[in-house]
Amino acid sequence: MATHSVLTEHLKKHFGFDSFKGNQEAIIQNVLDGKDTFVLMPTGGGKSLCYQLPSLLMGGTAIVISPLIALMKNQVDAMRNFSEEDGVAHFINSSLTRQAIEQVKDDIVNGKTKLLYVAPESLTKEENIEFLKQIKISFYAVDEAHCISEWGHDFRPEYRRIRPIINEIGAAPLIALTATATPKVQHDIQKNLGMLNANVFKSSFNRANLYYEVRPKTNNIDKDIIKYIRSQGSKSGIIYCLSRKKVEELAETLHMNGISCLPYHAGMDSALRSENQDKFLMEKVQIIVATIAFGMGIDKPDVRFVLHYDMPKSLEGYYQETGRSGRDGGEGQCIAFYAYKDLEKLRKFMQGKPVAEQEIGNQLLLETQAYAESSVCRRKLLLHYFGEEYENENCACCDNCMKPRKFIEGQELLSLTLETILAVREKFKAEHVVDILRGNETSDITSYQHDELDTFASASDEDEKILHAVIRQALIAGYISKDIENYGLLKITAAGKAYLKKPTSFQIVKDNEFDDEEEETVVKNSGGTSAADDILFSILKDLRKKLSKKLEVPPFVIFQDPSLEAMATTYPITMDELQNIPGVGAGKAKRYGEEFLKVIKEHVKENEIIRPEDLRVRTVANKSKLKVSIIQSIDRKIALDDIAMAKGLEIGELLDELEAIVYSGTKINIDYFLDEVMDSDRIDEIFDYFGSAETDKIEPALRELGEDDYSETEVRLVRIKFLSEIGN
């Protein structure tokens, strides 16, 4: 056994550090003693050293099983920097030539190599197994071990074959390392690797320097992100998106708005991916926009913020991705944008998968949803998820702790919840328990006859959200636990049973409200206006009225109300800016724009208004292939129902597209189709109606023309003809 002073000497000699961090020394000693070791250490805690140092002190070669080629290369380069001998560390993976692999094998056979990194896929190759059987192996290290667990967020089948392959090559001590594992995942990893008796070293998951916040994801999210990045000066940041397409789109939008950024995702050419990663590490760009493919082993200490454009699929993923900020102990802001509909989309994507996988995925999404919507301290929630209790009531470093919270008395609801869990013999999940309490007669409830329980409908007047909040906060308080083997089944703890015998006050915090925004294309008129400047809006309406009289066209033909409201909010003063207003195309801007711009300029000057133009999000030019293709089809006189079928649209959706085209000032001629499907006098009657109407809305038109005589589709078709001919 190496003494403390001897180990510290080796640490200084090989790596230049004066002292160990956290429980690194105890872990290294355990490996040197030849014992199986399980290491649970958050990102930035110094996991790599736990196998690098012992490999240098033990006879033979340590085999490190690692998931990413880029990660292996970084680690090997780092080891070579610490050593005089280049052969001290090598990797074998698909990126190497046959000749390079022979060189690696020579160095290993000659005893030069202390660390050999292999991808799990390379470990399973017969020729590699045969070679490794011939050499002395000091120990095996499985890095990013959460990849083993089907509950982990990066499931790889080869990882689950590691134990049988190790048995085939030859037994040696095993060290498994991960930065993120719930008790369930930890158990799964140890079981799969056959190391249930390993000594477990668990560091605290609390990153005290990180600030956690969840913001509602609005229709202006790109603008919100640009505004945030600009407020951060030149600080480095990572933005995570769930899809490759969104990564590309957002990176381009940020670039167009003068922000130094690059994209990163698995669909890119590997050389370009590495180049973008290096530019970020070398601070040649400020921001990287990425999918979860980016980040494992990224050792940039001064990432100051991590934004999540989409909520991740699991809290494991969220914790690991946020953990890339503030690694130097300095500031790290972790801001996630949340919309419930995003989680619904993820649930839909899972539908083709095996039922067991769907069940797991759904449980993980429910945890993410609970984290986003809960008003409890975010640090407390995260640490509880990873099996660690955070004692403080207020961390003073998350959005929930920084704002006043609404408490309500939950004693009765907690008692009802505990009674229900006992009544169903601790064999059901939270959703089922909530259905019983609310009296929802679902097929599951009736088939188990749970509608006959005493607590059925006992909280029927309570909101579903409140009941879920009670369950979540009872989990944190230790009254309920979730079964590890059957993830999600609610069990009552000893403390929960004691509570039922003697209930006391149980203050719960109401969840945050996240109402998904309506799409902004439709402005709902409820008497008020959504313009920021009501005075300018009135001036513009008067101008429109004056023009409509002069040109003898209805006011809505010139500009619709939403367009005027947008003008009275963003104050466009050039033709280019005017064309960025919804519903204003080049044609309309040219025909009516000058007079409106003149009025807006005068208003801005007189009132010394500071325009929001500097915060305008410059978007990628909308080369809508669909719209262009529809216009081309109409030019070729293809029937509208055939166009809709060819584009995979309902007829109503095609009419939406046609209306957007004519409202923005483009002329189209659909007479060929109207003449086929409608009598000319019907067309004339609707056309004449719009010529004298106060509004272009469909409901008043149907009332005036007779709802029994005309269909909505007919009125919309003729309205398109009218707007195209009169307005454009």
Describe the protein in words:
The protein has 728 residues and is α/β, with parallel strands linked by helices. The chain folds into five domains: 4-202, Rossmann fold, CATH 3.40.50.300; 210-349, P-loop containing nucleotide triphosphate hydrolases (Rossmann fold, 3-Layer(aba) Sandwich); 406-509, Winged helix-like DNA-binding domain superfamily/Winged helix DNA-binding domain (Arc Repressor Mutant, subunit A, Orthogonal Bundle), CATH 1.10.10; 534-615, HRDC domain (DNA polymerase, domain 1, Orthogonal Bundle); 625-727, Arc Repressor Mutant, subunit A, CATH 1.10.10. Helix content is 48%, strand content 11%. It has 34 helices and 17 strands. The longest helix is centred in the C-terminal third of the chain and has 21 residues, at 586-606. The radius of gyration is 32 Å and the shape is globular.
Topology record:
Blueprint: H1 4-15, H2 24-32, E1 37-40, H3 49-57, E2 61-65, H4 69-82, E3 89-92, H5 98-109, E4 115-118, H6 120-123, H7 126-133, E5 137-142, H8 162-169, E6 174-178, H9 183-192, E7 199-202, E8 210-216, H10 221-231, E9 236-240, H11 244-256, E10 261-264, H12 270-281, E11 287-290, E12 303-308, H13 315-322, E13 332-338, H14 340-349, H15 355-373, H16 378-385, H17 399-402, E14 407-409, H18 411-423, H19 430-438, H20 443-447, H21 464-477, E15 480-482, E16 490-492, H22 494-501, E17 507-509, H23 534-551, H24 555-558, H25 561-570, H26 575-578, H27 586-606, H28 625-635, H29 640-647, H30 651-663, H31 671-677, H32 680-692, H33 698-705, H34 712-727
Parallel strand pairs: 1-6, 1-7, 2-4, 2-5, 3-4, 5-6, 8-13, 9-11, 9-12, 10-11, 12-13
Antiparallel strand pairs: 14-17, 15-16
Helix pairs in contact: 2-3, 14-15, 18-19, 19-21, 23-25, 23-27, 30-34, 32-34
